Known about the structure:
The structure is a single chain. The protein is an alpha+beta fold. The chain has 2 domains: 4-134, PH-domain like, CATH 2.30.29; 148-292, Pleckstrin-homology domain (PH domain)/Phosphotyrosine-binding domain (PTB) (PH-domain like, Roll), CATH 2.30.29. 20% of the residues lie in helices and 37% in strands. The chain contains 4 helices and 17 strands. The chain is globular, with a radius of gyration of 20 Å.
Amino acid sequence: MVKVDQFALRIREPKDVPAPLLAFYEKARADDLDGYVVYAPPITDPPARHRQVPAGHLLMIGDDRLRIAIDRGVVEEVEIPFADLIFAEIGEALLFSWMRLGFGRHTSREIKIPFNTVGIELFRQALFSIRKALDVSPDRARDSHADPSRLPFKFQSELRRWLLEGEQIFELAFQPEIRTHRFIVFARQLAPPTLLALTDRQFFCVTEEPPVARERLSKYSSVYVYCPLPRLESLALEADGARRELPEVRIGLVNDRARVRFTVKVGSDCLAQFALFCRNVMGSVEKSACERR
């Protein structure tokens, strides 16, 4: 059921702010943090894998940091300098969506903001506001660019959705969904379809939610993970010699001593593609890092 009182709101003036969060909002504005502001009311009935204590979230984005107020009856305040942000994720699965932020310098922390998918454009714009502060300067030195025309239509659309105007795609690697097909009744997903991409401004991943039991609602889902290029520490293809598990692309992000790890399952028919992708991406990132020094 669609619940209007769970729709996210763009906050433009104090009267739009829920009473428990008004003091936080006014204090942040007094500190000159009066940029993009959005409020996500508590989601009381999220999917099982996303359950957490219901809370309202007020997200405020300034020039060099963001602040989040979390209302669980008692208001908790979190401040994240952009220099501490490691990754940002936006996911959607039918009417449920979320923003997840990873941050830290000594240890990594995460905050997850659930919201109704009706408000996803508000959080998409919030992420683009964050990207303005974290994207590296566009690198136009490369002559070759990746061609997304062979991607499935869904992933071509997602690619366009998360690129800024003029952003150039340098590298792409795509893994289709991997499923067991021994018996149709017992077929299960071994790995979701996943796209990895490097542009002149960002490294990112687009994938789907893993299915729960035999439901296939995952095909109506999408998860985008944004990684600022300076945070990308490692990207390597690791294969299990005993073939007990599918090979993995291991993605390492770092900020000072805080580290985050992601993995992407890869089928045997895509090994060469992803091996080349990893080499090209790390070569490009290391070259760009040297040029920025």
